[in-house]
Specification:
Shape: elongated
Number of helices: 9
Distance between the termini: 30 Å
Radius of gyration: 21 Å
Helix content: over 70%
Structural class: mainly alpha
Number of strands: 0
Number of domains: 1
């Protein structure tokens, strides 16, 4: 017969194991999300798409390129775009799983950084909604190009709507990034350099998002947002590896 004193250490051991298991799951989700986003963006690189037999070797146009080039790309690279937008069906649940799991980890570690984790959760939910519009409009762009020999007014409108929704996703991503980075650091889950990366990268995303009209019109300001997005991927990879390696 086990005494209460014997059961207490056993219960504590189970709690530690559960905490470690959950931490590793959240880390795995972070790595899977980052990997999926990297593959998704790689599909818009002409060489990668051509290598896989999904495109004609041209890279995706920017929002500042002539409409004729935008039309030609989507008419010739439907396969690459189909793979990229299809991956968003994986990205959306991974994003929500990560921010929800992060909030749970923060609460289990005493609640330090709980406010920041709630910000990450709320911003992540908003971001997933905006991303759904970004992908839906991109699907509509591809469908609008089918059967046409030149861009129509409807095609142009859909492309502009796609550009506008992507530009508006930047501040939501920035808020998610900052909230997650500060929550992870405050709870001791991530090191100081990741907090600095999060605040800097998230700040760049919010700054770029403030110029959403210019970005949608083809401004080079878009590269500020791209730099913030790259920082987000680096942070996810670093956080994922660290969480998987944690032992408590």
């Amino acid at each position: 017969m086990r005494t209460p004193k014997a059961e207490l250490p056993a219960r504590e051991d189970r709690q530690v194991l559960d905490r470690v298991s959950t931490t590793r799951v959240v880390g795995g989700v972070a790595l899977a999300y980052a990997a999926s986003m990297i593959v998704q963006n790689a599909m818009f690189v002409g060489g990668v798409a051509q290598l896989l037999g999904l495109g004609d070797g041209t890279s995706a146009p920017t929002y500042g390129d002539p409409l004729g080039e935008v039309f030609a790309y989507h008419a010739a690279n439907r396969g690459a775009v189909a793979v990229a937008v299809g991956l968003e069906a994986l990205n959306l649940p991974l994003l929500l799983l990560f921010v929800t799991g992060l909030q749970g980890l923060v609460q289990r570690r005493g609640g330090a950084g709980a406010d920041w984790s709630r910000l990450a959760l709320a911003a992540g939910a908003t971001l997933s909604s905006i991303y759904a519009l970004v992908i839906a409009t991109h699907i509509a762009v591809v469908l609008a190009a089918e059967g046409l020999t030149e861009p129509s007014p409807a095609f142009e409108l859909l492309w502009q709507l796609h550009a506008a929704t992507w530009a508006l996703s930047l501040p939501a991503l920035g808020a998610t990034f900052i909230g997650a980075a500060l929550a992870g650091h405050a709870s001791g889950l991530t090191p100081p350099w990741q907090r600095l990366l999060g605040t800097a990268g998230g700040g760049l995303l919010i700054l770029a998002g403030a110029g959403n009209l210019a970005i949608a019109d083809g401004s080079p300001l878009v590269f500020v947002g791209v730099l913030g997005l790259a920082a987000w991927l680096v942070w996810l990879l670093g956080s994922g590896v660290r969480l998987i390696r944690r032992r408590g």
